[in-house]
Amino acid sequence: MQIIEVLWWLCLSLVVYTYVGYGIILRLLVGLKRLREKQREFIDYQEFCPETTIVVAAYNEAGFIDEKIQNTLQLDYPPNKRQVVIVTDGSTDATPDIVRQYSEIKLLHQPERRGKIAAVHRTMKEVNTPVVIFTDANTYLNPEAIRNIVRHYQNPQIGGVAGEKRIHVAEKDSASGAGEGFYWKYESALKTWDAELYSVVGAAGELFSVRTELYENIPQDTVIEDFYLTLRIAQKGYRIAYEPDAYAQEGPSASVKEELKRKIRIAAGGIQAIVRLKALLNIFRYGTLSFQYISHRVLRWTVTPFALVLVFVLNILLYNYRGFYQLTFYGQIFFYVAALVGYILANKSIKIKAFFIPYYFFIMNYAVFRGIIRYLKGNQSVTWERAERANVK
Question: Is residue 113 in some structural domain?
């Protein structure tokens, strides 16, 4: 029984560290760094305007693309320093025709659909600016996004910049909106501290940037190319900055079913990236970057979901061992019942957000198991069907 007890505490510690403990430790380390350095770096961007290319990969985005173009052209950046390229490979709707209406936009289109990565690789051959910014077709950027991103490139150690992903959560939003919005607020805090300690560990494709010279043609079967590409740049010794004042806003997944589809794909891609970036697990070689990568990403996509299951199973075995374990058992029951209630309410379109957060947490970890199975089966297509999202308008 003592062995079971020790194993239970180890599993619980791993779960707590992954979802809460790392954030606390990270915040303490950042605080110590601030005390040591005394003065934080200030970057003035008013006179720094390098030539920049904005790349948008759009597949059948006729419902969003016109507003995306309008949003992009209204960004606060000198027009003579900004190029906009939209690649619409494989689109079968009116997306290419809509883009052709704008003379300021360079359209790249071919009928064959080979996936987003192939489209971006083709586009990068046309890019001749020192900075390239990638953004999704169904997101809206704040007016100062480009300026706030490019200012970081005054520092030669910065190889890329991750923008912030914001989920537009309205009162009418259901489980996907409440859970996803809460998740990304926490992620934003972690990324802010990650960047301040050393580097962001992977950018989100909604909005990120790299030095053009550091872009590399990654394998075309890569599932989460934004994450993989930015970590490859960090692996080369550059830092990935985080800029919360450059943000991409989008609606939440249209439903929990759609969000689950997206999470399964990300989990499968996460396992693929861990295998391909296995060198980054060597903390003796990569130091702080490895510590951040393992703590923030690897644990979530590998052992922690299994530890979460073991915490519950082992708690059953420990139920009569000490009274404390009866409390922890009922605490877990309460949490999973709350998740179940969130599921029931979501199906009945009843909006009580307090139940949606545990439901989203459950879905997030369940997706890891599905993602691992998908990766092992090798049936993740690069021409995946994106999850449907609610419009932010």
Answer: no
Give the model confidence (pLDDT) of 137-160 as tens digits. Answer: 999 999 999 999 999 999 999 999
Distant-in-sequence, close-in-space partners of 200: CB < 8 Å, separation ≥ 6: 162, 191, 194, 230, 240, 241, 242
Considering its fold, how many domains does the chain have in total?
Answer: 1
CB-neighbour burial class of residue 200 (10 A; exposed 0-12, middle 13-18, buried 19+): buried
Q: How many angstroms separate the CA atoms of 384 and 121, rounded?
A: 17
**Beta strand pairing call for 82-87 and 52-57:** parallel
Range of the domain at 31: 1-40+155-393
What is the tens place of the pLDDT at every residue in 2-18? 899 999 999 999 999 99
Separation between Cα atoms, residue 160 and residue 382, nearest integer Å: 24
pLDDT tier, 360 (very low <50, low <70, confident <90, very high otherwise): confident
Residue 177, pLDDT > 80, answer no
For residue 136, the 8-state DSSP code is -
Domain contains 252: yes
Residue 270 tokens read as 């996460």
Nearest to 40 by CA among 188, 151, 196: 196
Which structure tokens are listed for 90?
A: 């494989």
